[in-house]
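Many introductory courses stop at the sequence. We go one step further.
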Amino acid sequence: MSHIILGVIFLAVALLAVVSVIRQLKYKNILALLFSALTAVVFGFFSIATIISEITG
């Protein structure tokens, strides 16, 4: 059960990073855009992997 909660927290961080990517595109801040995109990809991958791992057993 605790792994599902961890996956949801990772998913929330990934969604916030996606919001940050959109904002950094507006401000044209390339370095922040790169870090935000990297964070979104990494946390998104780990959140989906954690949730699938817990569902499949």
